[in-house]
């Protein structure tokens, strides 16, 4: 990608961030208790307003007033399975965009079957997972255990010919933008694929960063009038760059968590422009 293209994309990412701060979208998240607090805080830091309502008898009413719905399968319970399904149906009915974060579907048949049940109801705007989770949904072999991606599932020049066609098919089948996280994040929308190299290994030293990115992705989706893929890319880039800045300004996981949130809260266009590391595997759509 040329410098000029990267500059344009960085400017667009900054504009989306400003629009979120102006519009203060209501972001409805139904997520796991491990990441719920940090997910609410990242939405706030980005300029949105989180609501983490999950009672089955209130989620439909609440999602109707929200600008986006984020569903996360982590630490699943009967109650959340019931409320997520109701909220998802109501969001689809009311054209509220949705993010489905496939946490742990590679380690739990319950979650995998539930994710497929949701996908039979309708298409989420964004399907998100780490490399092992997305491989599982695509029917490929996986090495992930627990909620972590397996080292052998990591995206590489060697396995891209196996992975990309399967992920393009998923994106087309569900008409969803795919966000696949890892050392390098992939954003796939139809036949387009962007590879984002921003981020820092420190993001893996605190729990729930993937879940936080799902909530951030939802927040950016509320400004996706031009392109859903662009909004997802913006969220992933902001997350990665704030992770890099956080790592440079901390001395371990405790101070990293604080420095990361501070960096995200105050991220400037110049920083995005200087740090953005993006490759494209296909035609770009940032004209
Ligand atoms: N080694 C790394 N280098 C750079 N960025 C990373 C690295 N590991 C994770 N990230 C970033 O951290 C964020 C979370 O991605 P990750 O793949 O770890 O999610 P996850 O497995 O769902 O996490 P969790 O289970 O903790 O919620 C993404 O923005 C990703 O780019
Ligand atoms: C640790 C953990 N267990 C279920 S969800 C979660 C947060 C990271 O995915």
Automatic annotation (TrEMBL):
Keywords recorded for this protein, A-Z: ATP-binding, Kinase, Magnesium, Metal-binding, Nucleotide-binding, Thiamine biosynthesis, Transferase
Q: Which organism is it from?
A: Faecalimonas umbilicata
Instruction: Name any cofactors this protein relies on.
Output: Mg(2+)
Q: Which reaction does it catalyse?
A: 5-(2-hydroxyethyl)-4-methylthiazole + ATP = 4-methyl-5-(2-phosphooxyethyl)-thiazole + ADP + H(+)
HAMAP family noted in UniProt: Thz_kinase
NCBIfam families hit by this protein: PRK09355.1
Residues reported to bind ATP: 128, 181
> This protein is called what?
Hydroxyethylthiazole kinase
Q: In which pathway does it act?
A: Cofactor biosynthesis; thiamine diphosphate biosynthesis; 4-methyl-5-(2-phosphoethyl)-thiazole from 5-(2-hydroxyethyl)-4-methylthiazole: step 1/1
EC number per UniProt: 2.7.1.50
Q: Which GO terms describe its molecular function?
A: kinase activity
Per UniProt, the enzyme's principal EC class comes to transferase
For the ligand (substrate), the binding residues are 52, 208
Entry-linked SUPFAM superfamilies? Ribokinase-like (SSF53613)
């Amino acid at each position: 990608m040329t410098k000029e293209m990267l500059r344009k994309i960085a400017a667009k990412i900054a504009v989306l961030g400003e629009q979120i701060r102006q519009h203060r979208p209501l972001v409805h998240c139904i997520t796991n208790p491990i990441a719920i607090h940090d997910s609410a805080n990242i939405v706030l830091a980005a300029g949105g307003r989180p609501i983490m309502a999950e009672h089955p008898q209130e989620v439909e009413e609440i999602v109707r007033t929200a600008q986006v719905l984020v569903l996360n399968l982590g630490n699943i319970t009967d109650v959340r399975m019931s409320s997520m399904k109701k909220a998802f149906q109501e969001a689809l009915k009311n054209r509220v965009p949705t993010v489905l974060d496939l946490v742990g579907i590679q380690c739990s048949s319950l979650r995998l079957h539930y994710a497929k049940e949701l996908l039979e109801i309708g298409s989420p705007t964004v399907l998100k997972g780490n490399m092992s989770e997305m491989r599982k949904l695509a029917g490929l072999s996986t090495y992930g255990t627990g909620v972590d991606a397996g080292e052998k599932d990591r995206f590489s020049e060697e396995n891209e010919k196996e992975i990309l066609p399967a992920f393009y098919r998923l994106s087309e089948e569900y008409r969803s933008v795919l966000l696949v996280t890892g050392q390098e994040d992939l954003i796939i929308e139809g036949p387009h694929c962007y590879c984002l190299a921003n981020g820092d290994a420190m993001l893996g030293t605190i729990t729930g960063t993937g879940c936080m990115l799902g909530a951030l992705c939802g927040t950016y989706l509320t400004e996706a009038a031009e392109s859903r893929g662009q909004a997802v890319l913006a969220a992933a880039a902001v997350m990665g760059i704030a992770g890099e800045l956080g790592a440079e300004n901390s001395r371990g996981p405790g101070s990293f968590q604080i420095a990361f949130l501070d960096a995200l809260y105050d991220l400037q266009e110049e920083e995005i422009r200087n740090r953005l590391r993006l490759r494209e595997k296909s035609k770009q759509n940032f004209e």
